[in-house]
Amino acid sequence: MSEFNAISVGRRVLTAEADALSQLAAELGESFAQAVEALFDAKGRVVLTGIGKSGHVARKIAATLASTGSVAMFVHATEASHGDLGMIGADDVILALSKTGETRELADVIAYAVRFGIPLIAITAVADSALGRAADIVLQIPDAPEAADELNAPTTSTTLQMALGDALAVALLERRGFKPQDFRVFHPGGKLGAMLRTVGDLMHGTGELPLVGAATPMNEALLVMTEKRWGIVGVTGPDGALAGAITDGDLRRHIDGLMGKTAGEVMTEGPKKTVPPGMLASEALALMSDPPPAVTVLFVIDAGKPVGILHIHDLLRAGVM
Questions:
Q1: What's the CA gap between 292 and 273, in Å, rounded?
Q2: pLDDT tens profile 137-185
């Protein structure tokens, strides 16, 4: 008996599945474009169904579609035969998964789709199967060997199904013009939700803004800077636009005769880094971190005027990292 080598087995499995995925990509054709359009045109929901491992993959595809703007759900094929067919409406599109296309539990779903004229998309390795023949659109996956070929356990085939589901979801979101801001609606919590929050969600508003006019004496400007506790004070022009900012560095550069100067004389014009309220928090963090110079606070500007202030601690507290 040859010596077992886990790394060798792992590489064999990954190579087999990667080869199958490459074949799937090379063979992807017009039926894929048709499936994307059918899903895009659906007035109702995208209903995923399958049995066994294909059912698990179908659940995952439904979740991915739902998170990217499609109204999608999973219906277990066996439960469908016992009443859940009523969950599928005439305006829906059914996406059914079965490697062989001969899964008997799908028979009632197939018959229901045909009877009521509900569009049926099949993901199967056998186009000339019961599922494939009944489907309006067939997305055929390569009939590649399973990674555990002797056992024929679903491995490569489910990887292909899942990857094809991802391809459908991404193509569909791009077809819709789905943006990160839209994605955030479906991901309000956790790390992803934090990264998709906007500057406007996290900023401190006008009541906390450290602002003075350009003609303000420095002793008064320092009082505002100390009171607001941001380590910075913004300097506005006659029109209320942000003309510049004063930081600790500016104070050190003008230490000689500081109290005899105005805010406009001490400020650094700009400032170079400001953000709009609609910018993603993750983008604001990247701007803060990108030298020169790296900063810890940003003025939020809308229509040329300061409307808020954002500190790096606000981003850290929200989980944006």
A1: 10
A2: 999 999 998 988 677 788 999 999 999 999 999 999 888 876 655 555 5
In 196-259 the beta strands, taken as DSSP E runs, fall at 211-213, 232-236, 242-247
8 A C-beta contact, residue 146 and residue 152:
yes
CA atoms within 13 A on the CB side of 98: 30
The position carrying tokens 């030298």 is 291
Sheet harboring 93-97: ordered strands across?
72-74, 46-50, 93-97, 120-124, 137-140
Dihedral sign for Cα 98, 104, 108, 113, please: positive
How many residues are listed for the chain in this entry? Answer: 321
Retrieve residue 279's tokens.
């910018």
The SS3 of residue 265 is helix
Q: Are 314 and 275 in contact (CB under 8 A)?
A: no
What domains lie within the chain, and their CATH numbers? 6-178 (3.40.50.10490), 199-317 (3.10.580.10)
How far lies 218's CA from each of 131, 206, 225, 243, 289, in Å? 79, 21, 10, 16, 29
- Cα 123 from Cα 51, distance rounded (Å): 13
3-state secondary structure of 237: coil
pTM of the model as a whole? 0.62
CA angle 58, 75, 59 (to 5 degrees): 25
